[in-house]
Fold this protein.
Amino acid sequence: MKELFDLNGKVALVTGGTHGIGLAVGILLAKAGARVCVNDLSHEKLKACEDAFNREGLGVFTLVFDVTDENDVDKGITEIEKNAGPVDILVNNAGIIKRIPILDMRIEDYKKVIDVDLVAPLIVSKRVVPEMIKKRSGKIINMCSMMSVYGRNTVSAYAASKGGLMLLTRNMTCEWAKYNIQINGIGPGYIATSQTAPIRENGHPFNDLVMTRTPAGRWGEPEDVANAALFLASKASDFVNGHILFVDGGILANFGYVKGENDV
Ligand code: NAP
Ligand code: GCO
């Protein structure tokens, strides 16, 4: 049974994994035996990431590269291949959000979100897939969102990116599943990280909305998402492909309810 989730001998790359969801994913994959690599834009955050892994008695290979820059990605993956080996498990986790009403959003801001959240997963996947094809084995996990299927005011660029990433995941599946590569997405709901801190902390009214719209009645934790990533990174999901696994406490199942009704 344990071998189903044993990642010993596997090299995993978690992009943007120095904190939040990515850090939880990296630590859990390392606990399952993977040789985990994490990239980020900041040396300082990578050092904090190393400390977090070390506190768990785990090692991690960290390096700086910008996932939106093809040359930087090529150099970074080459470094990983030299130091750890070809990437077996790719978690396209790096992402940004800009909460700006459409009419106020500059096109350059829209394009920046698209570049990180939608183009970068393609750049990194294209760089690592040839080795997966040679090995006839690989796992790609694209960090989508409930915003892959929902919109909301001020997050147009983000939702457009995550919606596109859901369909990019399915198109990767169409082209690469025949090489025994499983490409899936994870669609987190509202998770307590630095990305959602502005709409969660200090009594922000959005927190009330999330608490009432989420049947589980809580914000998700990064570890909730990491658990799904372990499944999609392991043998247990070898026949799961093109799937978006929503980890959302039931929010997508819920149209909503009158406050207090659930207390019955
Ligand atoms: P986060 O705390 O903002 O972390 C995102 C990470 O991506 C950061 O480490 C960031 O590095 C890195 N990053 C951004 N641009 C990059 C670039 N060009 N190159 C390399 N790294 C880059 O976000 P999170 O909440 O953990 O979310 C992680 C992923 O889950 C994202 O894709 C997000 O869209 C998705 N997600 C989050 C939630 C949620 O509720 N939190 C829900 C659904 C989906 P720096 O800090 O150095 O900029
Ligand atoms: C927001 C939030 C969401 C979450 C997540 C929900 O402003 O609505 O940041 O976009 O990050 O994507 O799944």
